[in-house]
Every structure is written in structure tokens, then in C-alpha cells.
């Protein structure tokens, strides 16, 4: 059976030591798409959208710092602890989505304090474009021929010619499609329920859906960590579990508090 061969150059162009990569364009572009969605939300709820340019900066800084540190210390700790200055070389790649989310959560806390915004309200609204950002990142991983799937003879398997000639699960696209569906679910819920209930429920739904998808799709991935753990789970799965638990607790709290309010 012939499989689709992916051999696209991850660089859009190279000028000397300067490189513009598809991953970088998609990563940064996802935040601008998120910014447009947040402007729509702010206008829909009669809030001042002028602060959103600063929110974009907070999100980018938090995501990059959190994602970089998580990758260095959860996936390649031996190397980066031996070469700490390499941690600063973000442009060489190596970002972990779990850490990126943690970094964004911290940066949004400081944003909410600086601009006198409800932290929970902000998280609930940012969850909507957040799922879309995750989708763009995984498409970027596909362009980079990284985060590879396990070998597969499925008709939709992809050969990443820049790595080897083995047909593999295109797990990057599995995740991207999953995150697009989660975005549509969150957007639909936001438009159908009251703003009060959306504030309470959306962060929990985001955490449960996104990291449950991530947990199960890890079974189609090659292991990314450079060390052996004596557990049946990958590092990605273990990092997903706390988020899933936190999301489930959040949903339970949201449903209970909403019932109390309506009683």
C-alpha cells in the first residue's frame, strides 16, 4: 500500500542565519486569531477591548516561558541540567504544551490583577481560542515532522521523509482535529448558556476535553522523553492527569454552585 509522503521544508525561507519557519508563523499567528476572537467576546459582553493587545503580550510570554521550561525539565532534564544556557535557545525548538498552559495561567493571573479583571471570567473566555491555539501548534509540529506517531499500516498513515521512510500515525493531525472539535464545542456552549454559567463551566470543560484527548492520543505517539520511566504512562500522559482531575473538580463545582443559585 502506498502512503502519503510528507517532505515539506519546515522553513518558509532562510536568509543567512535568519530563518522563518512554518511552526513560528502558526504559533504566533494562533495568538492573533485568538485576539480577534477575544475582541468579538469583549464587544459581545460590552467590555473594553483596548486592553487586549496587552493580553496578547502576556499570553505569548507566559506560553513561551512555561512551554520551554516544561520541555527542558520534563522531557530532556539530563541534557538541560548539564547545559543550562541551552534553555535560553527557544528558537532551536522544544516547547511542551502542558507547561505552555501553566505559563499562560500564571501570566493571566498577573494580567487580571493589573487590569482589574475577574480571573475566572478571563480564563473562561480565553479557553475558547485556547483550543484553537493548540490546533495551530500541532499543525506546526506536522510541518516540522516532529512528535511522531507510532508505525502504522493504516491507509491514512504518513511517511515523514525527513525522519525515515516508515509510515506512521499522523498524530499531530489527530490532535489538531480534536482541538478544532473542542473549540467548536466550547464556542457552542458559550453562545447557548448564560454568561454567568459560561464563566463557571468553560474552564473545566476545556481542561477535561483537551487533556483527555491528549491522554488517549499519546498511545499512538512515539515516546518523547529521553529517560525511562517504570510506569505504563508517558510523560505527556502523566502531565495530563492533573489537568483532567482539576477540570473534573471544576465542572463539579460549577454545577453545584449553579444549582445552589437557582434553588
Question: Could you give a quick summary of the protein structure above?
Answer:
64% of the residues lie in helices and 6% in strands.
Can you describe this structure?
The protein has helices at about 20-45, 50-75, 75-80, 95-115, 120-145, 170-190, 195-215, 235-260; strands spanning about 5, 10-15, 20, 160, 165-170. With about 260 residues, the protein is mainly alpha-helical. The strands form two sheets. A three-stranded mixed sheet has the order 1-4-5, with no helix packed on it. It has a two-stranded antiparallel sheet with strand order 2-3. A hairpin with a 2-residue loop joins β2 (about 10-15) and β3. α6 (about 170-190) packs antiparallel against α7 (about 195-215). The chain is globular. The model has no long low-confidence stretch (mean pLDDT about 90).
Largest sheet: 3 strands, mixed
Shape: globular
Low-confidence stretches: none
Helix content: 55-70%
DSSP strand tally: 5
In terms of DSSP E residues, the strand content is 5-15%
Strand order of the largest sheet: 1-4-5
Structural class: mainly alpha
In sequence order, what are the helices and strands, one letter per element? Answer: EEEHHHHHEEHHH
Number of helical elements: 8
The number of domains: 1
Rg of Cα set: 19 Å
Compute the separation of the termini in Å: 61 Å
Mean pLDDT, as a whole number?
89
Amino acid at each position: 500500500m502506498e502512503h502519503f509522503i510528507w517532505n515539506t521544508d519546515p522553513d518558509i525561507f532562510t536568509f543567512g542565519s535568519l530563518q522563518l519557519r512554518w511552526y513560528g508563523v502558526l504559533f504566533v499567528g494562533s495568538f492573533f486569531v485568538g485576539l480577534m476572537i477575544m475582541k468579538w467576546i469583549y464587544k459581545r459582553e460590552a467590555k473594553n477591548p483596548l486592553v487586549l493587545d496587552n493580553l496578547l503580550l502576556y499570553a505569548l510570554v507566559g506560553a513561551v516561558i512555561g512551554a520551554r521550561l516544561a520541555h527542558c525539565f520534563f522531557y530532556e532534564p539530563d541534557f538541560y541540567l548539564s547545559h543550562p544556557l541551552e534553555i535560553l535557545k527557544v528558537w532551536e525548538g522544544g516547547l511542551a504544551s502542558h507547561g505552555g498552559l501553566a505559563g499562560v495561567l500564571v501570566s493571566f493571573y498577573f494580567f487580571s490583577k493589573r487590569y482589574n479583571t475577574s480571573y475566572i471570567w478571563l480564563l473562561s473566555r480565553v479557553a475558547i481560542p485556547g483550543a484553537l491555539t493548540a490546533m495551530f501548534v500541532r499543525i506546526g509540529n506536522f510541518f516540522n515532522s516532529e512528535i511522531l506517531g507510532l508505525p502504522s499500516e493504516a491507509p491514512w498513515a504518513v511517511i515523514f521523509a525527513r525522519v525515515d521512510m516508515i509510515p506512521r500515525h499522523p498524530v499531530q493531525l489527530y490532535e489538531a482535529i480534536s482541538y478544532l472539535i473542542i473549540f467548536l464545542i466550547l464556542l457552542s456552549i458559550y453562545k447557548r448558556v448564560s454568561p454567568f454559567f459560561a464563566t463557571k463551566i468553560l474552564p473545566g470543560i476545556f481542561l477535561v476535553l483537551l487533556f483527555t484527548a491528549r491522554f488517549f492520543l499519546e498511545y499512538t505517539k512515539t515516546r518523547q522523553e529521553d529517560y525511562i520511566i517504570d510506569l505504563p504512562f508517558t510523560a505527556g500522559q502523566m502531565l495530563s492527569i492533573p489537568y483532567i482531575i482539576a477540570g473534573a473538580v471544576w465542572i463539579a463545582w460549577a454545577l453545584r454552585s449553579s444549582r445552589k443559585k437557582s434553588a
